[in-house]
Amino acid sequence: MEILPYDRRAAAEYARRWAFGRSPAYYDFSRIGGDCTNFASQCLYAGAGVMNFTPVTGWFYINANDRTASWTGVEYFYRFLVSNDGPGPFAEETELKKLEIGDFIQLGRATGDFYHTPVVVGFSRGGPLVAAHSFDARQRPLSSYAYERLRCLHVLGVRRE
User: Fold this and answer.
1) pTM for this entry
2) How far apart are CA 99 and CA 81, in angstroms?
3) What is the extent of the structural domain holding 95?
4) How far is Cα 98 from Cα 156, in angstroms, rounded to an integer?
5) Average pLDDT of each block of 10 consecutive residues along the chain (161 residues)?
6) Torsion from C-alpha of 26, 28, 29, 31, nearest 10 degrees
7) Whose CA is closest to 104, among 6, 1, 2?
C-alpha cells in the first residue's frame, strides 16, 4: 500500500469555501443530529482523496443512506482515524500545540463524550482558528467555544492501494 501526503491546504480551502454553505454533493444532516462531522469528513476527503470502503468500520460516503458511521459520527470518526491501517486517511491523537492546518479538534463534556468536530483552518495569537457546521463557523477562535474536554487529531497521511 502506498502512503501519500495529506493535502492540508486543500482541506482548509474546502472548509473555508463551504463553512457557511452546503456542498450539493453531500446531504445536510443539520436537522437530524447535526452536520459537524459530515462537514469534517468532507474537509478530510478534500485533503485525502481516498475513502475506505470497508463495510461498517471503514470511512466512506456514497449518499445519505450509503455511508459509514465514521463519516457522520463524532466518536466513529475518531476511532476510524486513530485505528485505520487500511486505505484512506490516518491520524494520531496529539497535543493542541502540535496541530496543523487541516487537523481536527473534538470538543467534549466532562463525562467523556465528545460532541463536535471542527477543522483547523488557521492560527491567531498561538491558538487555532476553526471552521465547522451545525454551529457554522469559518475562522472561529477555538478559545470562543465552551467545552470541558478536547482531543486533537493530527492527520499523518493517506494510504492508497
Assistant:
1) 0.97
2) 15
3) 2-160
4) 12
5) 97 98 97 95 98 97 97 98 98 98 98 96 95 96 96 98 93
6) -170
7) 6
